[in-house]
Amino acid sequence: MKYVFVLCFALAFLLSACGPNYVYKDQTTFENDTWTYQAIQQHQVEIKDTSHLYNLIIGVKHSPEYAFQNLYVKIKTVFPNQEKREQVVSLNLADGSGAWYGKCSGKTCRLEIPIQQNAIFEQAGTYQFSIEQYMRTEKVEGVKGLSFKVEKTASKVQK
What is the DSSP-derived secondary structure letter of residue 121? Predict the structure, then answer.
């Protein structure tokens, strides 16, 4: 019995070590499944280790009745030295025939979209990310929630 306990504990430890290494993750749900221009998502991420590569991931939770194939977002970044950048990104939620990417179950579809893979954070410190919907309408119905994750990879920055 003692060996079974030790084996189960060791297996649980190994499986937990294989998962993603998120240095930041946050999730928001939108009231009435509607994302408005005013509902800007703010994220402050503390980066201490600049020797590794990182993945930036946006998760979208939406209704299967969402009216569009994609979702435009504007991402603004403020670096630790206060330099600012912004970028408009199209998050593709469905293929050309209208089939949803990700997993749909009942009244909810979920999809995680890497918006930048193997990103290099050259400066240690606090990075500020804001994500706002950038569609042509003030209210985007059918968007239930949004998540933002920063994953530290096992890969090191090549110098």
Answer: -
pTM of the model: 0.86
DSSP for 43-96, please give it. EEEEE--TTEEEEEEEEEEE-TT-S-SEEEEEEEEE-TT--EEEEEEEEE-B-T
Nearest to 131 by CA among 21, 26, 23, 22: 26
Return the closest-CA partner of residue 78 out of 135, 26, 123, 133.
123
Rounded Cα distance between 63 and 144, Å, is 7
Give pLDDT tens digits for 83-123: 999 999 999 999 999 999 999 999 999 999 999 999 999 99
Assess contact for 134 and 87: CB atoms under 8 A: no
pLDDT tens, residue by residue, 65-89:
999 999 999 999 999 999 999 999 9
- Count CA atoms closer than 13 A to 95's CA, side-chain side: 4
